[in-house]
Design the sequence.
């Protein structure tokens, strides 16, 4: 993911759009250093965005209880 300011985006927009279409890389557009927009390639299927998370939750015993750092296996 790349950052680009609004002022830098305007003159390069067409080239950036072509790059996003080709590579799928995302851009974050900033205004005075703060992120305001995300430009990404359009996904035709809404579930494509969630496919990365599919089957990542194996068991959720107490959904109303807070989760601590020790509860995340990926951190260990």
Sequence:
């Amino acid at each position: 993911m790349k950052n680009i300011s609004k002022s830098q985006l305007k003159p390069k927009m067409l080239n950036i759009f072509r790059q996003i279409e080709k590579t799928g890389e995302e851009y974050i557009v900033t205004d005075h250093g703060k992120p305001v927009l995300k430009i990404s390639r359009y996904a035709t299927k809404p579930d494509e965005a969630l496919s990365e998370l599919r089957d990542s939750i194996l068991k959720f015993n107490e959904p109303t209880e807070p989760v601590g750092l020790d509860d995340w296996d990926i951190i260990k």
Q: What stands out?
A: The longest strand covers residues 34-39. The chain is about 25% helix and 20% strand. The two ends are 26 Å apart (CA to CA).
